[in-house]
Specification:
The protein is α+β, with helices and mostly antiparallel strands. It contains 13 helices and 15 strands. The strands form four sheets. Strands 1-11-10-9-8-2-3 form a seven-stranded mixed beta sheet, sandwiched between helices. Strands 7-6-13-12 form a four-stranded antiparallel beta sheet, with no helix packed on it. Strand 14 and strand 15 form a beta hairpin. It starts with 6 loop residues before the first strand and ends in an 8-residue tail after the last helix.
Length: 384
């Protein structure tokens, strides 16, 4: 959807102007850039820092940059980071405590103003992931005030996917490759005989105001058609898919499947999948002191359900085996997340597949569970 039908076409100069316009509004612009052999998210100050001419080669446990001849800026799939790293930081201090000579304690909460970000290049799957985290961290009775402050100040420039990776399965999760809502501006990159350009539309009042500041021309039918066709073609070229079943019911009905033993024999319980996942949100508290014991700090940091201490109780961990921990992660992500938050916790970005050191593929596991459940059903019995 657009605001008042506001659309336009910009060139690469317009993209550079967009970055400068957002910075002029006091925002820290975060976008994709090439660094250390990967396309990462970092602060950028101009369009030349975008990964023009770079794509990625993805497979289970495999990520490589590859050059592109078309010079596209956004023809790459999700990298190792997600926008969660900025909205829900991996580690942040919550308070400090000082003990005076007379033993008096003074506790000071960290309440520094939250940054105002502009995210450039938010993929549809990540746009959905942000919406999921909004529901988890600011949509219920226990709001994360810091997350909400960062989120309310964030400006989102979504980019539709035109080049899905071999591990992408956003169409299975209903989260891409086209954008729906929740953005301030949305871009679709077109590179053809008509030139290198971007079909741009506004999704908020501020997005419309920023659009008005850019060098642009009215949206033309050829560009819009090319953009829509390219996104539609991307939907047909997904590298992975989930089984066409009710995943929530599948997870509920296969808790004792033999497949869990198979995947547990391969899983290292390293937690990489939870660290790169754009929706995983669990944290723990870490208290530290100086050598004198007069200064203490509490830090919040990401935690993983693959950590043996994650479910530790006085009698020991609730999920002591790798089998139980992998099953907890997968069934929560694809199943019980619905019970808690009314949606899936998976957006089909494929990061957990790419960054698993042993190449475990959540889509492969879901298909295997479905096949096992079908084999176990008697004649006339519906499979989950």
């Amino acid at each position: 959807m657009t605001v008042d039908g506001t659309t336009a076409v910009i060139g690469t100069d317009g993209l550079d102007a967009l970055i400068r316009a957002l910075a002029a509004r006091g925002r820290t612009v975060i976008g994709p850039t090439v660094r250390d052999g990967a396309i990462v998210l970092a602060e950028i100050t101009g369009g030349t820092e975008l990964p023009y001419g770079w794509g990625v080669e993805l497979e289970a446990g495999h990520y490589r940059l590859r050059p592109r001849e078309d010079g596209a800026a956004f023809a790459h799939s999700a990298g190792p980071q997600s926008w969660k790293s900025f909205l829900h930081p991996q580690r942040e201090r919550e308070w400090t405590a000082e003990r005076a000579a007379d033993g008096t304690l003074t506790v000071t909460e960290d309440d520094a103003p939250q940054p105002s970000y502009a995210f450039l290049g938010v993929r549809p799957c990540d746009l959905r992931a942000i919406a999921v985290q909004d529901r988890v961290l600011s949509g219920g009775p226990h709001t994360d005030s810091r997350y909400r402050a960062r989120r309310e100040r964030a400006f989102l420039v979504a980019v539709e996917c035109t080049e899905p990776g071999a591990t992408c399965f956003c169409t299975s999760m209903g989260s891409g490759p086209g954008v729906g809502s929740g953005y301030d501006l949305a871009l679709t990159e077109v590179v053809d005989d008509g030139g290198h350009r971007f079909w741009l539309r506004a999704g908020s009042d501020e997005g419309e105001a920023v659009l008005a500041e850019l060098p642009r021309r009215p949206a033309d039918g050829a560009t819009e058609t090319a953009a829509r066709e390219t996104v539609a073609e991307a939907a047909d070229r997904m590298g992975r898919s989930m089984p066409l079943v009710d995943l929530q019911q599948l997870m509920r009905g296969t808790l004792h499947a033999e497949r869990w033993n198979d995947v547990a024999s391969r899983c290292l319980t390293c937690g990489n999948c939870t660290m790169v996942c754009p929706t995983c949100f669990c944290t723990t508290a870490e208290d530290v002191t100086d050598l004198s014991g007069d200064h203490a700090e509490r830090w919040r940091r990401w935690e993983s359900c693959f950590d043996l201490e994650f479910s530790h109780l006085p009698g020991g961990p609730v999920r002591a085996s790798g089998h139980s921990r992998y099953r907890q992660w997968a069934t929560h992500k694809l199943g019980t997340w619905y019970d808690q938050f009314g949606s899936s916790g998976c957006v089909g970005c494929g990061r957990c597949i790419v960054w698993c050191p042993v190449g475990i593929d959540i889509t492969e596991e879901a298909h295997a569970l479905h096949q096992e459940s079908q084999a176990a059903c008697g004649p006339g019995e519906p499979a989950p």
